[in-house]
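Wed. Picked up where I left off yesterday with IBR domain protein. The coffee machine is broken again, so keeping this brief.
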Amino acid sequence: MATCAVEDSYQDFSRLVNKGPHSGPRKPLHRYSPKQSKCNDVVYKTIYDPYGTVSKKQHKRIISVASSDLHFNVPYSLNKQRRWETVNPKSLLLSSCYNAQDVLVVNGVGIPPAYDSADSCRVQSVHLLEDDSVATVSTSGKPKSTKRCAEEDQLAFIRQYYNSSSVSTNKLANMEQLESKSKLCYSCSSSQETDLFPSDDGFICKNCAASTVLHQLRLKQFPLRLPVKTSASNCPLDFLYAILPVPVMSTLIQMSFSHFYPLHNPRAIFAKCPQCKTSLVVDSPNDYNICSCSECYIHFCHRCSSEPHWPMNCKEFEQWSQKWEEQYQIERLCLDKDENVLRISCVCGTTFLVAESSAHGTYCPNKSCGHRYDKAGLMRSKRDLWFWYTARDRQKRIEGRDGEMGKDGIPIVAECISQKRMIRKEFASVSAEARNMRYDRSKRRKFKEAVMEIASSREEQVALLDIRVTALLLVEHCTAWLYLHRSSSSTRDLRSLPLKLLEHVKNVESKIGAERWVPIFKSRDF
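Structure written out below (tokens, as returned):
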């Protein structure tokens, strides 16, 4: 079978690189010249095994059993040898001697240098064989989230409310013929033909049209009466881009969307993601005021743009946060009874708290800084710690210092803070332990590794990880709610529930960690 240049390049690849003492693989872009890297229609056969479930022997068996004119990992051009007449999904499925249930024909879009990775292909349709018939599953790509309301989404929605300002093509042509003799703005009598637009009263210039729209926008008179008239196939809203500045146009679209969308859905709530700043609309808000961003997938309260804080409302959460965020910085240090805290301001601008007894030698939390605190009141870098000097330099440095070497560094003033407890210990200790478990990277990593070994599917793994975070968040927020309502007699019997939930989370983590090693112990017994 004659092959094309790309096919020859792939088939001769092993012979070209496996020669001499320096044999080894090349980079994918070096397999063929840039002229041969054009995007064309090709057929490509490979074994898709991203999780490594197929052994090496089974991998070789699949390659040897599968009888076909197409070799593995070689892109064959459909334009060569008129393959486009004979190669189709059904012929590829029927020509495979391997189990038909494990053979799929994927139609996608990719770039030739990326053919060595099946993940780089954007899938459009998948074909499989079912009872001698070909079943096809198509996809249109990533679906657009219904909660996202960016400017292009808002513009597409409000077009329907401004199409009524258009006129027919015949009427527009007649109006232009009537005004062809005297093309002047009916408001300011401007004669610049490049700035004139058709309107109800003749022609209107760019400045007068912008002034009319801005006057209505300031008064919030929606729907806006657009002075520009267009044909029935065009929307007058598009002509405003030639009249108004871009910031004013964005404000017009946003205000129009905020006016018309509640008429379409009275329960809708507008929000903005606190992380990626994407404009969102919540069509059906829940009782907990929690929504999820469709771009970065974080969860937050759409009322106060903070983290989910059930069972507290937004005002209670703000009241708790003012005390707890300051208290937690001391609780996480695990101080002794009479131990103080040092607030250190590093030379890079980072401020951090550290226990007074262990402050010496503490590095700045800013990874790009590299300074560490010295008990002499200095922030010392690596150069200050390991500075090379001669014997003569040493003699100069100890003169007048009673034979002691001075320390190099940038002097700072560390503020000493005494322990100030704003939240009672019985509430603060439980909340601090739950937050430490939630923020501890090593514990999260160990739990994730254990879950990935015992869970059979990806959905179960994600569910277990989410349940752990939700349980720890509930412990912290329920404890906060009990603290805010500590004077109520009805909450006294509920104070032990968050602690019981925290103990239950610990027991589940220990059991999952124990089940992780059960197969190893069983294999040793045999």
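Quick read: Residues 27 and 43 are 22 Å apart (CA to CA).
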